[in-house]
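Field: COMPLEX_INPUT
Field: COMPONENT_COUNT = three
Field: RESIDUE_TOTAL = 832
Field: MODE = joint
Values follow.
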Amino acid sequence: MTNLLTVDDLRITFPTRQGPSEVVRGVSFALGRERLGIVGESGSGKSQTGRAILGLTPPPGVATAKTLNFDGMDLRGASPAKWRELRGIRMSMIMQDPKFSLNPVMTIGRQLIEAARRTSGRAEARDRAMAMLEAVQIRDPARVFKAYPHELSGGMGQRAMIAMMLITEPDLLIADEPTSALDVTVQIEVLKILDRLVTDRGMGLIFISHDLRLVSSFCDRVLVMYAGRVVEELKASELAHAKHPYTQGLFKCLPKIEGGQRPLPTLQRDAEWAR
Amino acid sequence: MTITRPQTRRDWLLSDSPTSRKQARWGQNYRIWLALKANRLAMVGLWIVVILALLALFAPLIAPYDPLEGIGGLRGARLEPPSWTHPFGTDDLSRDILSRVLYGSRLTLLVVLLVAVIATPIGLAVGTTAGYFGGWVDVVLMRITDIFMAFPRLILALAFASALGPGIENAIIAIAITAWPPYARLARAETLTIRETDYINAARLQGASSLRILWGHVTPQCLSSAIVRVTLDMAGIILIAAGLGFLGLGAQPPQPEWGAMIAGGRRFIIDQWWVATMPGLAIFVVALGFNLLGDGLRDVLDPKARK
Amino acid sequence: MALIEIENLEVTFGSAGNLVRAVRGVSLSVNEGESYGIVGESGSGKSTVLRAMCGLAPVSGGVIRMGGQPLASPRNAAFYRTVQMVFQDPYASLHPRHTVDRVLSEPLAIHGFDNTEARIERALNEVGLGHGFRFRYPHQLSGGQRQRVAIARALILEPKVLLLDEPTSALDASIQAEVLNLLDRIRTERGLTYILVSHDLAVVAHMCERLLVMQHGLAVEELTRAELQARQAAQTYTRDLLTASEGYRR
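Field: COMPLEX_OUTPUT
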């Protein structure tokens, strides 16, 4: 299997008053046409990793890597024109909150058509926009097509955004907590859509989340990040048998419906992990 | 670890775990100061304001001549252009303009300070009360505010000043009366968001009275934007005071008020340009200083503008 | 005997023509020393029930009784000494310009408690924050530490009932475990009564003996912890929630 994306020694540095601070410290991984989960707590650098792949490290942050290779292209130092060509067409990103990613004064339909026209003609774009809305399981696509973002519920808005990100049929999708703002029952629906895209279209998916249980049930492989490093990489199905004490602790400290230890085992952080 | 390092005052201020209320408060103020210090333009503004304050304070020591008495009578040094003896020149009554500008800074500072001290609390009290209680309290207070805002400020100040009679004290009162409505609007808008927050709900659940919530919880949150607004308004206040002085309703002759001095120099503006220009330059520099300082303060104090 | 009884509670927001019925005829009763959970998705009205109890949401129908007596409206000082609340977002529930010291001393001053110094120190120790945290501002605290301060604030008036509105949903999993353990320990030590609102079935199953499932402002069903663990839900919606909480199934 050829790798869709190869990342080697990714480092992201932000300048602070106390000197430069490295929030991602040498992350390496390869992604095929699969579901890769990145799990970690707040401040672990998981979101910054996702952004850096799309060249979206917010200034004054600086991202460097030994290799950052997408489908045979070196993304390091890619020109703005090159990024425009890739972003939203061959690689897309879904953010946590659809409110910040949809244009509030444009109807969903127009935004979709605008995105679709980057890869196809005017007449075709409209049909594809409608088809895409259906594909993301929106029950009344005609209504949503004419609606403004504020007229949609959270779940609908998130689906509309997923439709927008996927209309160009990207090869790589980075989803940063795509379902955290959604109710659990809606969450599963959205995951089904993503799942089908990976299985049917052979898209590569990086699923960034703090929710260990969700990631382990959804992804094929999981990277566990702690303090800017990948502390463990393992098959999702084997998460319960993780070797690193951080992963183990993270898994054990979750309360369970079936009941379990009381008090809950807490995570004893070891300074060694952050080395 | 037993490595004891002599604790500097800076460490004490920036400590992450202060040991007393005093240390916590000073630490907080020191952080604001550090942030302000990093803004070069704001520091220029601060220096202008500090120098203005020092000049006003030491005007009798610095000013080379008496601001009210002409030099050598009317036939003396009348309308002399700027020179080494009179750097800003002299006016039609043979008075040294530099000395008058220096003494004038006292009046300017007095006006600015008193207006800020009178108008800001009124505006904050009206705005937070209206915003917090809502309902008819809000309607009544905000309609009164609207009435004041329906007139151009200078016109309203003019009306009050002429009703109260000319003089610097009345000018101050007139300006203060016209200056508070924007603060009330600002404070009300902020209070509307603050009153819905969970920290206000938490205070309510502790049984805190409305007065306690308004004074201890809402007002401190509105204060920083009010301070920023006042600093930015200072320039406007100076200009209105100068405008009133120019129209003869502010400080009365022979008081060296900058606006009145420009008015006096109007007659000679073509041939003896310095008479009106020097106080005009003073107004310009001081107004600019307050504006720069206000901009800097906004960056530091107002979290909304920072994002 | 039931300490808290809610009968046919109705909460309506908005004005005529644009009414939102957030809570529609919900009844529940909580015994003294019990931990009771309310579970639901966003818009189910679960938090509104708590807010209505505290007088933070308008009650348009029904009765809330405490110890058999209907609650006074507006709530009085005695109520606030008995019932306290911990809010969801620890970043929004602490005043950004008040130190921890001020946050804790203010309720004591309002209710005229003596021995302020000792009480503040004890409250900080109880929630696992030492003296070193007393004079910090919220921005000098992490999310978990803020939530501990919020819990200390709720406890300092020595209430009998603690209302917990998603107390850990804004926290990382490892911090959530610590805060849940803390809440659990305090309840045993002080014999408190909890009403805990959460969207997370696992959290409620861990913390509560009984729970109410809510949807669209209506009570769906009441379950005991044992019934929940055995997945004996009568209603489809509850079963959907149970399935969804297990994660993704291919």
